[in-house]
Amino acid sequence: MNPPALHDLEWTPALATGHAGIDDDHRAMVGLLNRLQAAGRRSAEGEIRAALAGLEAFTRDHFARQEQLMREIDDELAARHQREHVSLFDEICAQVDDMNEGLLSAAAIADFIRRWWLDHVETEDRRLSAALARRAAQRGNVDP
Fold first, then answer.
1. Could you tell me the sign of the dihedral formed by the alpha carbons of 36, 119, 125, 78, in that order?
2. Which of 4, 16, 22, 83 is deepest in the core (most CB within 10 A)?
């Protein structure tokens, strides 16, 4: 079953983690997710595939940047955070396979990513941002 059509996700201060680099990436991800949702609403197969590819490439780069930040501060919860990243990609690959077999729509994939991303930002990314800010403060840096 397909989820109802989603409205575009809008960047608001409520989505901010407090870390400029992470938040910049998240703003871009909002745009990419909206692009996928729009392509899904139009049932534009080529646009859906291009949007998924763009979202995948950007998300891989974003996760790599976050994981580098975790290594830089020797984050004690880095392994758990990284497992969540891997789990997302595994699930999306399975969902894309289902979409290719006609079992799932692009809208359903966009809905899944949206829900996962909002939860992940609220929990893991905010925790990481706070850890980065604490480390910066310990080092005497004002801007994380």
1. negative
2. 22
Return d(Cα 23, Cα 7) in angstroms, integer: 21
Name the residue among 89, 110, 88 with its Cα closest to residue 99: 110
Q: In sequence order, which residues have a C-beta less than 8 Å from that of residue 143 and are 6 or more positions away?
A: 20, 136
Question: Would you give the end-to-end CA distance of the chain in angstroms?
Answer: 43
**pLDDT by residue (tens digit) across 11-44?**
999 899 999 999 999 999 999 999 999 998 888 8
E strand or H helix that includes residue 65: helix 45-72
C-alpha 27/C-alpha 4 separation (Å) is 24
The CA-CA-CA angle for residues 56, 61, 63, to 5°, reads 90
Q: How many CB atoms lie within 10 A of CB 51?
A: 23
| Whole-prediction pTM | 0.84
